[in-house]
Write a structure and sequence with these properties.
By secondary structure, the protein is an alpha+beta fold. The chain has helices at residues 3-26, 53-62, 171-175, and strands at 34-37, 40-43, 72-77, 90-96, 101-110, 114-115, 124-126, 138-143, 151-153, 161-169, 184-190. The protein is 20% helix and 32% strand. It is extended, with a radius of gyration of 20 Å.
Length: 191
């Protein structure tokens, strides 16, 4: 084999291996600098100038289209409050109180940022759709079966995640998102 053939093969293998490694890193999930508050996680650098190139690529791939942190913060839950993976065949109560921001919504996704197909054509619960009590507490249900009141259908998918978007969060939440009083996610039963 000629010397230049070896160089071409080495360069091709290097490019293929490098590309595969880059894809694996970017698809590895949003785990850079994550902080948790109950079952919810967020990154301190999402939507900021401090975000690394890798974090920006991961955010772009996940479809968050991250606004600057002063505009919106994104909290994602893949597990319930007891640490069990969210399962679309189960029913959950999502309970919370006043969130330290101007407005919020919770959207249900089926892996890699895809909305779950469902006959009700519901994908999100906005703050305006829940009823609050005198203490500012609210709740809604996540379930594969039709529920009364505020309800997000899971479409009976095997796994899903919830993304809470908090618009115009307070300066305290931006600085220390791990201190946010986030909603609880309680499993009620499974089909």
């Amino acid at each position: 084999m000629k010397t230049w053939h070896r160089y071409v093969i080495c360069v091709a293998l290097g490019l293929i291996g490098g590309a595969a490694y880059a894809v694996q890193l970017v698809r590895g999930g949003l785990n850079d600098g994550l902080v948790s508050s109950g079952p919810w996680e967020t990154g301190k650098s999402f939507g900021t100038v401090d975000a690394s190139t890798l974090t920006r690529a991961k955010v772009a791939l996940s479809g968050l289209l991250a606004l600057p942190a002063k505009e919106a913060m994104y909290f994602t839950a893949t597990r319930d409050s007891n640490g069990r993976a969210l399962d679309g065949r189960c029913t959950y109560d999502v309970r919370g109180g006043t969130l330290d921001g101007r407005w919020w919504s919770v959207t249900l996704y089926e892996g890699e940022g895809w909305l779950v197909k469902n006959a009700a054509k519901r994908w999100s619960i906005p703050a305006s759709a829940v009823t609050t009590d005198a203490q500012g507490r609210w709740s809604f249900t996540v379930s594969p079966d039709t529920q009364s009141g505020s309800w997000l259908p899971t479409g009976s998918v095997e796994a899903f995640d919830l993304t809470l978007r908090l618009y115009h969060p307070s300066a305290d939440i931006i600085k220390s998102p791990e201190t946010a009083q986030m909603p609880a996610i309680d499993r009620k039963g499974c089909a």
